[in-house]
Write a structure and sequence with these properties.
Elements: H1 2-6, E1 17-18, E2 24-31, H2 38-50, E3 56-63, E4 75-82, E5 88-95, H3 102-109, E6 114-120, H4 126-140, E7 150-155, H5 165-174, E8 192-195, H6 205-219
Parallel strand pairs: 2-5, 2-6, 6-7, 7-8
Antiparallel strand pairs: 1-2, 3-4, 4-5
The structure holds guanosine-5'-diphosphate and magnesium ion.
Magnesium ion binds near residues 38 and 39.
Length: about 240
Amino acid sequence: MIVEKQKEEMKEGMRFKINKKGEISIKIVYWGCATSGKTTSVDTLFKIVEKGDSNIKIINNLKKIDMQSGATLYFDRGIFQSKIQSKIYYHVYTVAGQVRFSPIRKKIFYGTNALIFVFDAQRSRIEDNINSLKELKKISENRLISEIPMLVMVNKQDLPNPLKKSEVEDILRQEGLFYPTNHKLNTWNPIVYETIALYKNSQNIYTIFSEMLRRISQYMLKDRTDFDENSPNLPKDVPKL
Ligand SMILES: Nc1nc2c(ncn2[C@@H]2O[C@H](COP(=O)(O)OP(=O)(O)O)[C@@H](O)[C@H]2O)c(=O)[nH]1
Ligand SMILES: [Mg+2]
């Protein structure tokens, strides 16, 4: 059902959904292993935006589909609208991280325009994180970074001895998702943010989302000939999202 809907009018390049009224829907997905903090991150993001003072507003609150354990059953979804370009909507999803929900994750991935990967910073979860990353790579058919902007959270920094940014960059490098300086995709390497998703002491949750909106607008232009990959400033005619 979801897949069918998303097959509606797709654009070339960054494949956004555009409806007859010219409204653009951009799909942003939070991905990662079970209980890494995806739902909490998006929940906190909504609470921060609700307080006001950002360039986006809430159109549709986060709908959560929980199991009794509190884990996400299928996916969560909420929608923001850009205050600057009222025709631009951001559809934010989280996936269910449990291994057995792999077929559902594949469906949710369909039509993804941007991806935020949520590492669990607890060292006991390193393997789960890596397995989730490997599954994502497979499902995305090598379109991450080259076509789909990707940013990374190392979440739960409030817990003792958390994984740090440089360690996660090493993992990304091993998985071929972090390019050396001489590579043409180096500019688009995922930025790794050390985060706390819990609302009461949240850290970097809004920052990473707004950086993603900035990246999305850069990716809209990435394949244009007048765009200099080495200094990715927006040309003048690019809509500010
Ligand atoms: N200490 C701590 N706990 C967190 C953080 N983010 C999420 N959690 C907790 O981790 C558990 C799983 O979070 P949830 O968002 O449901 O994970 P999801 O499966 O990735 O959606 C919950 O008990 C959250 O309260 C964080 O930054 N720090
Ligand atoms: Mg969840």
